[in-house]
From TrEMBL:
Phylogenetic lineage: Bacteria, Bacillati, Actinomycetota, Actinomycetes, Propionibacteriales
Annotated keywords: Kinase, Nucleotide-binding, Serine/threonine-protein kinase, Transferase
InterPro entries referenced in this protein's UniProt entry, alphabetically: Kinase-pyrophosphorylase (IPR005177), PSRP (IPR026530)
Tagged with keyword Lipoprotein: no
Catalyses which reaction(s): [pyruvate, water dikinase]-phosphate + phosphate + H(+) = [pyruvate, water dikinase] + diphosphate; [pyruvate, water dikinase] + ADP = [pyruvate, water dikinase]-phosphate + AMP + H(+)
Annotated EC: 2.7.11.33, 2.7.4.28
Protein family per UniProt: Belongs to the pyruvate, phosphate/water dikinase regulatory protein family. PSRP subfamily.
Binding site for ADP: A157, P158, S159, R160, C161, G162, K163, T164
An example Gene Ontology molecular-function term: phosphotransferase activity, phosphate group as acceptor
Origin species: Nocardioides marinisabuli
Short name of one Pfam family: Kinase-PPPase
Protein name: Putative phosphoenolpyruvate synthase regulatory protein
Function recorded in the entry: Bifunctional serine/threonine kinase and phosphorylase involved in the regulation of the phosphoenolpyruvate synthase (PEPS) by catalyzing its phosphorylation/dephosphorylation.
Length: 289
């Protein structure tokens, strides 16, 4: 007899906003169960008690099925939250779990309004992120070299190493102005940084991967081409590594890391760089030539 397949666990992410927060926090827990298969459903914009009742009725029907569902919610509006908590389904209420604790520490009540995390409640932060996204789109894959001095981060790598998704994540989630520049054969034949980024080495990060992964990804785009050959990938990655080492650029290997992990490493290194630069500045001020 063959192995009996594990049942698929229904998972619901509920929110009175976009559902992104519920998905992010819920998936951070679910990823700890790699041998379990989940069927995910997001129900966003539950903005009225009536809508919440409909969702509760649907969840209660799920409880009559063969597998108990998991439900994650970040609903902030009290009446909606109270209604959702009436469900018979096991419900993990991220907002309810933590809001009271935060309020007690701060000594004041939160607004408990929907859409404040991903909405435009903080208009200055929202506008900053949108400006960062616009800059990053314009400077994707070396398309524009205009105003490179405004870049907070410049990513260098051979094609298909993960520059674009990392750039967009840093812009959208952290409001950073990110340019990414593809290292082509002409750049890799030299040891100098490419001209457009040479003056900004202190903002540059290298991204690399392994030969097998790069060749596989490129073959999906251009099957059987020289561009996708293991030989070409090996040469580009070797030369890129030499370039990064020659200029002492921090390097992140994207072969086994998610965009979130790559971004976290870049942010951590960026903080370390800033602190080191500040120490140098203070030393120079204290000990002028």
């Amino acid at each position: 007899m063959g192995d009996v397949a594990e049942p698929v666990v229904p998972v619901f992410f509920l929110s009175d906003s976009t559902g992104i927060s519920a998905e992010t926090m819920g998936n951070a827990l679910l990823i700890q169960f790699p041998d379990t298969v989940f069927e995910r459903t997001t129900i966003p914009f539950i903005s009225t008690v009536e809508h919440a009742r409909e969702v509760v009725a649907m969840l209660d029907e799920q409880m009559d099925g063969p597998v108990t569902p998991l439900v994650f919610t970040t609903a902030a509006e009290d009446l909606v939250r109270e209604e959702l908590n009436r469900t018979r389904a096991p419900l993990i209420d991220f907002f309810g779990m933590h809001m009271q604790r935060v309020e007690s520490v701060l000594g004041r009540s939160g607004r408990r309004e929907a859409a404040r995390l991903h909405g435009v409640g903080d208009i200055q932060r929202y506008n900053s992120r949108m400006a960062a996204v616009e800059f990053t789109i314009e400077h994707d894959d070396g398309q524009s070299l205009r105003a490179m001095d405004r870049a907070d981060v410049i990513l260098l790598a051979p094609s298909r190493c993960g520059k674009t998704p990392t750039s967009m994540y840093l812009a959208l989630q952290h409001g950073l102005f990110v340019a990414n520049y593809p290292l082509v054969d002409e750049d890799l034949e030299r040891t100098d940084l490419p001209g457009p980024v040479a003056a900004y080495a202190d903002r540059c990060w290298g991204i690399t991967t392994n030969v097998d992964r790069l060749s596989r990804v490129r073959n999906e785009r251009r099957p059987g081409s020289r561009y996708a050959s293991a030989e070409q990938c090996r040469w580009e990655l070797r030369r890129a590594k030499q370039l990064f080492e020659a200029h002492r650029l921090p390097v992140v290997d994207s072969s086994s890391k998610s965009v979130e992990e790559i971004s976290a490493l870049i942010l951590q290194n960026r903080t370390s760089r800033a602190k080191a630069a500040e120490r140098v500045r203070r030393t120079q001020e204290e000990n002028p030539a």
